[in-house]
Amino acid sequence: MLVGPAKVFYMDGISTGLDSSTTYQIVKFMKQMVHSMDSTMIISLLQPAPETFDLFDDIILLSEGQIIYQGPQENVLDFLESVGFKCPKRKGVADFLQEVTSRKDQRQFWFKKNKRYRFISVPKLVEHFKSFHIGQQLYDELGIPYDKTKAHHSALVTRKYGISNMELLKASLAREWLLMKRKSFLYIFKTTQITIMSIVTFTVFFRTEMKHGRLEDGGKYYGALFFSLLNVMFNGTAEIPLTMFRLPVFFKQRDALFYPAWAFAIPIWLMRIPLSLIESSIWIIFTYYTIGFAPAASRFFCQILAFFGVHQMALSLFRFISALGRTLTNASTLATFTLLMSFVLGGFIVAKDDIKPWVIWGYYVSPMTYGLNAIAINEFLDERWSTPNTDPSFAELTIGKVLLKSRGMFMDDYMYWICIIALFGFSLLFNVGFIVALTYLDPLRDSKSGIQDGDNKIKKSSTTTAPSVKGYLPLPLKNSNWVF
């Protein structure tokens, strides 16, 4: 960091774990660097040794979030003496500055014997600094408007992010590709899992047991289609932990203006498309002809497209849920509720005609509805289900349309494409919601630890203090809460 192009350095706690001699050597080197390279360093130290303190050119004295003094190091004692506090000869200046603002330590530094001591709070010290000659010079300089003509044209940032949107997208895509290669075992495992499940599925619904052409045969095909849809949907739940583990880092980088939310979300969406197509194709390749679905090649590829749309929708849905929940518990609960409602109102567990009118809207907003309709239309409108209907309770002419009507499904070929458009529309909607949630929502839990500020209670107490006995220092007790 020191050899880079930066001209301003902010350092906090650089003496942690170091002895006073090492700290002195480091600060001495930094002072020489500042003077020789015309740079600026702001270093935060807690009660440094006197020899280290003397190395600084300027001092910023902070207390309770306010600046009590900011100016040359040699004038800080003059300022406090003008208030009424004097540093003892055998006490380090840094220790004196640390204790002079404390209610329990301030009294011992009062040296104006002709005036009665009263506790001087931090706001009063700040007001006194404004009337001190160093403070007056500082505020006079700050009161002069900045002349932009004297500044370099590149001195001020004119855009929110350091690079263009296209460069942000390219960098995010490269990072996402790198992360996917590092997590290749996970994606191989998911592919293996869906392969094993497809083998189990076609052994349960093997084509030798799957007759067709009758109303009684349609139930088995409905079961096979719904079970396939469930597996593809549940395969997308892996997005919840994958997204959740990345959110803490994302929120920090977003707040630091590394990149916007869309630069994080779009690469994830794009990189999942090939994987989604591979997993959907594996499922159809292993199950389609072994179960005995419609043999036409066009139906085969339409089935792949439908499952690809369902898988894309599922991945987008669970990413969106992760961004809304922001914790694994919340996201898992919300995902479970969403899946249950989608399954119940999707048209298979409860047929459309059996859903009450006051919840029929749930049927049309459920993504499962359009996935199930697409694969059912693709299967039951095939020629092999065109056997004439002999059931007088249904007005439809073919067995395939009777099976669709019995579950409240759509019965026209063009509705397949409308369902496909709806699935990809849901995917787009959930991805947009994912971006919006990442843009405007903050993490529910901050990783930074903190303690309650108990000083306010002390400030409200009476300003009167017990008279001190000559030669003794009053030590008022203060309750402390320790949290580990």
UniProtKB/TrEMBL annotation:
Q: Taxonomically, which superkingdom?
A: Eukaryota
SUPFAM superfamilies the UniProt entry points to: P-loop containing nucleoside triphosphate hydrolases (SSF52540)
The stretch of residues making up the signal peptide is none
Q: Name one GO cellular component term.
A: plasma membrane
Tell me which residues make up the Plant PDR ABC transporter associated domain.
Answer: 385-449
Domain named ABC-2 type transporter transmembrane: residues: 168-380
Fetch the InterPro entries from UniProt: ABC2_TM (IPR013525), P-loop_NTPase (IPR027417), PDR_assoc (IPR013581)
Give the way it sits in the membrane.
Answer: Multi-pass membrane protein
Keywords from UniProt, A to Z, are:
Membrane, Transmembrane, Transmembrane helix, Transport
Keyword Cell membrane in annotation: no
Provide the protein's localization.
Membrane
Q: Transmembrane segments in this chain: where? A: 185-206, 221-245, 257-275, 281-297, 331-351, 358-377, 414-441
Write down the PANTHER family for this protein, in alphabetical order: ATP-BINDING CASSETTE TRANSPORTER (PTHR19241)
For this entry, the protein name equals Uncharacterized protein
Origin organism is Ilex paraguariensis
